[in-house]
Automatic annotation (TrEMBL):
This is beta-ketoacyl-[acyl-carrier-protein] synthase III. It comes from Carex littledalei. Pfam families: ACP_syn_III, ACP_syn_III_C. The keyword Lipid biosynthesis applies. Residues 171-250 form the Beta-ketoacyl-[acyl-carrier-protein] synthase III N-terminal domain. It catalyses: malonyl-[ACP] + acetyl-CoA + H(+) = 3-oxobutanoyl-[ACP] + CO2 + CoA.
Length: 401
């Protein structure tokens, strides 16, 4: 905001309908009010509508731009059903040794029965809120980072409603295995540029439902899970989000994808001016397709570069890192990046052996275990990086509060 100072804020009665308020411009301050009183304004909705009881209320605190961010809590959840490498050996031609030597994975969890991505996301979010001792109605925004929503149009709003975050809004962020990192950066921008106070970032994926379980090249890698962090506003001088770097390159799409494919056939309508492509066929997605060698080359080249760029922005070096936390894709990738950055093995956080690649859930899931296990403590500097389909990749340097 131009010429902004610590005392210049923007006040909004969020969600008020146009025409229900007057607007007054005070230099760089914009105040929205109705009859000079902060009365709730109910947006008109048809009787019986699901939005009939939704009331726009004034914000609890004024928006203050230029704030810093801090990570204050985390939570995670995984399905009950566990599949070991020995279990997979009964399905495809493989073995525990073959899988563990090449990937570092020994078991993974997958959704079964009535379990759902939404359920995992809600459970992880509740644990993060409990750790932070923050009530659901204190949350301003919920970002659900997922590539496998329960609904084509997204699941974030369902999650935020189930959590009881009645004063928040929500959306889905899709960037595959980089999703959580993208959601985390987005959360800090809403705090810094939008004056938000509490943002809940949830990474959740159920890639087991998009895996060909007869293909040993992919089915051995993936599992399901969810992880969450609560990002909270703090004074700019106490900012715990020290630097970040994010990228995408669509040319790498061919190496890792789950593209749309032709679904079931439909009877062609006769009167289509000769077109044989109408009506469209039923939509569907192919199983995950991956060129493992190319993805490995991409990760070990781009991830260290990204972390180095983030460290430069943070005015730090790899020697300042207390913990290296990478997307849990492959043990060889994790080891190669740590070696490149000269970070010793005892400073690397990994739970890959127990959960496999949980996509957008992998970073917050591993972080939650490390925090609750006493590894990560207040003030520790964490270098985190996500990378995967898109291709997308990025990193962030952050201080755990």
């Amino acid at each position: 905001m131009a010429n902004a100072t610590a005392g210049v804020v923007s006040l909004h009665g969020t969600g008020m309908c146009a025409g229900a308020r007057d607007m007054v411009r005070l230099g760089t301050v914009r105040c929205c009010y109705r009859a000079r009183r902060w009365d709730p304004v109910t947006c008109a909705a048809p009787s019986g509508s699901v939005t009939e009881d939704v009331v726009s209320k004034p914000r609890r605190l004024p928006r203050v731009v230029g704030m810093g961010s801090k990570l204050i809590a985390c939570g995670s959840a995984v399905p009950k059903f566990e599949i070991s490498n020995d279990d997979l050996a009964k399905i495809v031609e493989t073995s525990d040794e073959w899988i563990s030597v090449r990937t570092g994975i020994r078991k993974r969890r997958v959704l079964t029965g009535e379990e759902s991505l939404k359920g995992l996301a809600v459970a992880a979010g509740k644990k993060a809120l409990a750790m932070a001792q923050v009530e659901p109605d204190e949350i301003d925004l919920v970002i659900l980072c997922t590539s496998t929503p329960n609904d084509l149009f997204g699941t974030g709003a369902q999650v935020h409603t189930a959590l009881g975050c009645k004063n928040a809004w929500a959306f889905d962020a899709t960037a595959a295995c980089s999703g959580f990192l993208v959601g985390l950066v987005t959360a800090t921008r809403f705090i810094k540029g939008g004056g938000y106070q509490n943002v809940l970032v949830i990474g959740a994926d159920c890639l087991s439902r998009h895996v060909d379980w007869t293909d040993r090249g992919t089915c051995i890698l993936f599992g399901d899970g969810a992880g969450a962090v609560l990002v909270q506003a703090t004074a700019a001088e106490d900012d715990g989000f020290l630097g970040f770097d994010i990228h995408s390159d669509g040319q790498g799409y061919r190496h890792l994808n789950a593209k749309t494919s032709e679904g079931g056939t439909e009877e062609v309508i006769s009167n289509t001016n000769g077109s044989t492509n109408f009506p469209p066929k039923k939509p569907a997605f192919s199983f995950i397709q991956m060129n493992g060698k190319e993805v490995f080359r991409f990760a070990v080249r781009c991830v260290p570069q990204s972390i180095e760029a983030s460290l430069e922005e943070a005015a730090l070096t790899s020697s300042n890192i207390d913990w290296l936390l990478l997307h849990q894709a492959n043990r060889r990738i994790i080891d190669a990046v740590a070696t490149r950055l000269q970070i010793p093995a005892e400073k690397v956080i990994s739970n890959l052996a127990n959960y496999g690649n949980t996509s957008a859930a992998s970073i917050p899931l591993a972080l939650d275990e490390a925090v609750r296990g006493g590894k990560v403590k207040g003030g520790d500097i964490i270098a985190a990086s996500g990378f995967g389909a898109g291709l997308t990749w990025g990193s962030a340097i952050m201080r755990w509060q």
